[in-house]
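User: Fold this, then the next.

Assistant: Folding the first:
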Amino acid sequence: MATVEEAKQLIPELCKQFYDSGWVSGTGGGMSMRVGDRLVVAPSGVQKERMRPQDMFVLDIQGKVLEMPEARPLPYKPPKLSECFPLFQKAFEIRGAGAVLHSHSINAVLATLLSDSNEFQATQLEMIKGIAGHGYYSQCVVPIIENTARECELTESLEAAIRAYPDTSAVLVRRHGVYVWGRDWIHAKTQAECYEYLFTAAVKMRSLGVDVSKAPKSLGQPAEKGLANGHAPKRRKLAASPPPAAVVLDIEGTVAPLTLTKDVLFPYARAHLESHLKATWTTAETQSDVDKLAKEADEAGTSLRGSSMPDVQAVVQYVQKQMDADAKTTALKTLQGHIWREGYKAGQLKCTLFPDVLPALQGWSDRHIRTYIYSSGSRLAQRDLFAHTGDGDVRQHLSGYFDTTSGPKVQKDSYENIQLNLGVDSPADVLFATDILAEADAAAVAGWRVALVVRPGNKPLAAGHSHRVITSLADLLEA
C-alpha cells in the first residue's frame, strides 16, 4: 500500500464487497491496513456497505490515534474505534502483516462447529494452494479459539494461537467468525477467499458424509498400465513425498529471467571493468582478485605476469577474453561480483525476479523450510543480487549461498559437498530447482529431489529426461 489515502479509499471498497458476499452484515467484522508506520482501521458500528474514506481511523503502530473521523449527523453513531484493533495489532506485530481482515461469514461459523476440536483441518482441496506455504496435498490447519462476550477479550487467546501455529494465516473464533491476514491487502483478500472456500466445502461435504480433514481413498486412480502414459505409479509416489528439509535454487532461468546475466550483469561488468580496476588497484581486495586471476592464467598456460606483476591493461584484456568465452571460474566470478557490488550500491543495478518467487520464498519461510541458492556467480554477488531486487531485499528468506567453490554445477560431487553443509539426514531431504538439464542430472545422481523449471525465454529442454517439470515455484512442493 503506497499511501494512507489509498488505504482509506480501498477499505470501504473491500467492506462493500464483503458485505455483498454476506460476510460482514449488521455492521459486523472489521478491516485494517498498514502503510509504513501507520495503521488505517475501519470504524465500529458503521454499515459496511455505506462506509466512506473519511470514516477511517489512522493510528500509529503503538495504537495512538493520529486521525479521528468526523462525526456524521444522526442517525449515525459517533465514530468509534473497532474493538478488533488489539487483535489486528497482534497480526501486524507477530506476522509482519500488511492487512488484517475480520468477517462473520456463516460458513466460517459453521466450520467451528464441525467438531469439538480446537482445529479446523482440510486436505486435498484445490483452493488450499491459495494459502501461503501450502499445496494441494498439505494438511491445512486453522486454530479455533473460544468466543468471548467482547471482541477485545479475544486478544490473548488469538496471540497464543498465532504463535502456536506458525503455518496458519487465519484464526477461527468459535460461533463468531475468522481473522485472516496477509503481507498486503491483495494477499489477505486472496487468502480470505480461499479460506472461505475451504469452510464452505467442509460444511457441504459434511452433509455428504465426507470428512474434509482426511485424504480421499484411492478412487478413480489410473491403472498401473495403459493410462497416464505409464507414469501413474511414479506420480503417486511423488505425491506421497514429504516436504523437503531444504530447497536449493538456481538463479537465471529459475528465479530470474535468463537474460539477467547476458543483458544486464555482464555488460555492466564489461563497461566498468577498467574503471573499477584503476579506482581500486592498490586495495587489498583488488590485488587479491588479480593474484587469483594470475594464478589461474598460469595454470592455463597463459601468463598474466610477464617479467613483472600484471598491470591494469593486461588484466582487462585477460578478463575480457574470459567473458567472451563465458568462463565460470571462481577468480572471474569474484572480480565480477566486486564490480556488481558497486553497481548495486550506486543504484545502477537491480534484479527482476519472476512474480511467483517472493510468495514462494515467503511461504517456505513460514513453513520453516530452509532455502539456499546455488549459482556459478560468487556468494558475494548472490547476496548483493537478492538484496537489490524489484521486490526489495529478500535475503531474510534465504538461509545461505553456494557457488563454484563447492564444485561445478554439473558434477555429482558438488551436490554431495553442499549436502554436508545443509545438515540434512538424507540427500532426499533436499529439493533442487534449475533450468539446466545437466545440473538436474548431477543433483539427481547425488540423490537429491529435482525439478526442472521452464520459464519464458529459457532454452528448450531435451526430450527423454525423467525429471519433473514446473513453470512456477508455487508448484515446486506440490509433488
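Now the next one, as you asked:
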Amino acid sequence: MDRNKQGYFVISLDFELYWGIRDKKSVDEYGQNIKGVWSAVPRLLQMFEKYNLHATWAVVGAMLSKDKEDFQKYIPEIKPKYIDENLSPYGEFYKGLADIEDLYVYGNELVQKVIEYNGQEIGTHTFSHYYCLENKKDRGSFFSDLTSAIKISEDNGIKIKTIIFPRHQVNENYLKGIKKHDIYIYRGTEKIWYHSAARGQDEGIVKRAFRYVDYFIKIGSHHCQNIEEVKRGDIFQIRASRWLRPYNKKNKIFDFLKLNRIKNQMKYAAKNGKIFHLWFHPHDIGINQDENFKYLEIIFEYYLELKHKYNFESKNMYEISEIANGLK
C-alpha cells in the first residue's frame, strides 16, 4: 500500500481530574467520576497494551503537582483575567483548595503510570485548564500558564510537543507563539460549523442540537482527515473525529447508533487512507466502567478487524506529525 494512502487510528485523552470540570460541577456532584479515574486509567492502559494501541494523553499541568505546596511552586506569574471570574482557578476555588481531597486534583502517580506503557505520549492540556477564547486579548496570561505547564512537565521528566486546548477553544493567534516553546502539534476541531471552536456562551442551542445528532447518525461527514492536511507550515493540526460519549442509562437505547457511527467512521478512514481521531476524558469513563469498557472493547476489536483487512494503524499525535512531516 502507498504510504500516503495509509489509514490511521488516533486516540487522545484530555487528562484533567477535577481541574477540567470545577467551573461546572461541584465535587459532590461529580466526585465519583473523578475518583473512578484512579481505577479507570490502569484498566485503560492494560487495554491499550492488549490491543497495541498508541495514544496521546494531554495532561493539565496542575494535576502533576504532588500536593498544594508543590502546586504553589508552579502558579503562573500572570493569571487569567476572565470576564466570568468562576473560570479562573485562582479565585474562590483556590481559597478552598486545601479542603478538597488530593485525589481529586493531584494525579502525578497516574501520569507516571501512563509513561511506563509503550506508545503513550504525554502532551499538555495547559497548566490550569486555560480557556483561550474567553478573553482573546489576554495573551500574556496564556503564555505564562503554558510556561508553568512546561516547567512542571520538565521537572517530571516530560518533554512536551503536543497541546490539546481545553474545551477545544483553539485560538489561532496563539499557534505561532506555542511553536516558540517547541510545541508544534495540536488537536483541531472537526471541519464543520457545529463543531467549530467557540466560547462557552457562544455555544447556541442550534449548534448543540446538530452536534448531538451527529454523534448518532451521519448528518455532515465522516470527519476524517487526509494525512496531507496535517502539516500547516511548521505547525501540525490533527483534527478530532469523534468524542466518545460515555454510557448513560437514560440514552442506552441509542448505544447501537453511537457505536455504528464510530465504526462507520473508522471503516471509512481505513478504506480511504485517512485519519480517524477518537477522544475522551478519563473521567468520562470513571463511573459505569463495565459499560464504558464494553464500548471500548467493541471499538478496539473492530480496529483489529480493520488492521487485518486494510492495514489500519494506531498512532499517537506525535507519531502522526512525524509521518506527515516525512511526506514528499
